[in-house]
Amino acid sequence: GLHTRAWELGLGALLAVTLTTTRRAPENLRAGLGWIGLVAIGIAIATFDRVEHFPGTWAALPVIGAALVLISGDDNPRGVARLLRLSPLQWAGSRSYSLYLWHWPALVIGAAAIGREPGPLATVALVATSIALAEIGFRLIENPIRRSPRLARRSGLSLTVGAGLLAVGAVVGLAVSNVDTTTRTGVIAAAPEPAPALPEVTDVPPPTSADAIALDAIADALGARVVPDNLRPSLLEANRDTSPLYGTGCHQYLEERAAQGCVFGDPDGDITVAIWGDSHAAQWFSAIDLIAEQRGWRLVSITQGGCPVIDVLTWNRSGDAVFDHCAPWRDNVLDRFAEEEVDVVLLGQHYGLLDADSRGAVNASVWAEQLPALLDRVSETMTPIVLIDSPDPPEDVPTCLSEHPEEIEVCEPGAPGNTEAAVAATIREITAERGVGTIDPRPWLCVDDRCPVVVGDILVYRDSHHLSDTFVRWFTPVLDRAIGPYIDSLR
C-alpha cells in the first residue's frame, strides 16, 4: 500500500533535490558508499523472508542501499558504475519496470495451471516466460507510447489517455473480481430445518462430547450430490463469510498485546463468558454472541490468527515465520480476563498449527504436557470449557465445489487424521479426568465419518478449515443446548 511505502518515495525525492550537494563529496567516499549500498541490496535479496523482516523496519536496508548507489554516481571511476555499466545489467535495468509488471501474473497463473508448487525446471520456464512478456511489452507498448511525438507535443492528450486507461483498468478489475464463475446446476435447495433447540435439562454436569445431538439435516445432506444454485454464501463470496469479530479489532494478527474493549453479548450481564484461541475459536463467535444476548451473559472475545492457547512455539506456513509474539500475547490475554473478571472461558484452537522446530503438526504428546498446565492456570480464576477442533476438509471447499459441482461428496472431510484423532482423544482424556467441559462438534457435523459440506442451501465451510458464518448462525441452537444450561448453573 502507498501509505506503507510513501517514505521510500520521499527518500528518493529528498535525494533528487540534494543530489548536487551529495555529488560534491570526495570521489573515494562516494565510491565506498556505492559499494556498501550494492552489498546492502544483495543481502536483502538473499536473506529477507515475507513476514519477519519485510515489510517493516528492515525495508530500510535495500532502500538506503539504493540511495547510496545513486549517490555514488555514474561518473565515478571507482564506483559501482563500473559494474552497473555492463550490458546485461543495462538491459535488465532498462526493462526493470516491465519485468516488475509481468513477473507476477506469469508466476502465479503458471503455478495455478500446473496445480502445485512449480519445481526448478518449471520455475525457470515461468521466469523465462515473464522475461519474454516483459520484452514484448517494453518494445510494442511502453516505448512506443513513452516516445510518441504526438503525445509529447500535446500534454492534454497524454493526460486524457492516461486517465482513460486508468478508468478502463479499474472497471475491468472490478468486473472480473465480481464475476460469478460458479457452474449452474439448475438445482434449488430448500433451507435446512432449524437446528433443534431441545428442552433444557435440570441436571447440568459439564458438557462433554457425549452430549452430541443427532441432526436430521446433517444426515439428509449426505444424500445431496449437486451444488445448489441458491447456495448461501455463494462460492464466490464464501471466503468473506467470516465471523463479524474480524471487523471489530478483537480478532488480532501478529500482536503481542491483547485487544481492548472486546465486550459483546449483554454488557450488563451478571456472568462473564470469554472466547479465547485462534481463528478456530473466533469462528464460533456469532453463535456464542447470540446465546450470550439471549441468556444475559457478558461476553469477552479475544482471539488471534495462528496463536495457540497452549504454551508451544509455532511456525506459520503462509508467513514462513516463527510466531514468537504468541507467548506474550497469551500472558496479556489472561491479564485482560482477570481485569474483566471472566467467570467462564471457552478455549479453541486449530490442530493444524505447526511446531516451530519440527515444522509438523503440534502432536498429542505436546497437548498431554501443556494442556494440564493451561487448565491449572485458567482454573485459578475461571471455569474452562474446551472446544475440540472442527473437521478439516481435504482442500479449499469453495474451490473444490467449483471443480466438482455435481460430485460434492469428493470435497467432504473424511475420518480424522492420526494427529487430529490423537489430539482429540488426549483432550477428552485430560478434561474427563479433571471434570472440565468439552465440546466436540464432530458428532454433530458428521455421520459415520462423512461430514457434508453443503446442508440444504447452506455452505458449511468457507475455506479449507473454517466453518462459514452462515452455518455457525444456523447451528446456534445446538451449541446453546450444549453450553447454555451449564454456564447458567454457574451464576
What does this entry show, briefly?
By secondary structure, the protein is of the alpha/beta class. 49% of the residues lie in helices and 9% in strands.
Notable features of this structure?
7-stranded mixed sheet; 491 residues; 3-stranded antiparallel sheet; 18 helices
For the secondary structure, the number of strands is 12
Report the structural category: alpha/beta
Largest sheet: 7 strands, mixed
Point out poorly predicted stretches: none
User: What shape does the CA trace take?
Assistant: globular
**What do the pLDDT scores average to?**
90
Tell me the span between the first and last alpha carbons.
49 Å
The ordered string of helix (H) and strand (E) elements is HHHHHHHHHHEEEHHEEEHEEHEHHEHEEH
Instruction: Tell me the fraction of residues in β-strands, as a range.
Output: 5-15%
Our Rg estimate from Cα atoms comes to 28 Å
Alpha plus pi helix count: 18
Helix content: 40-55%
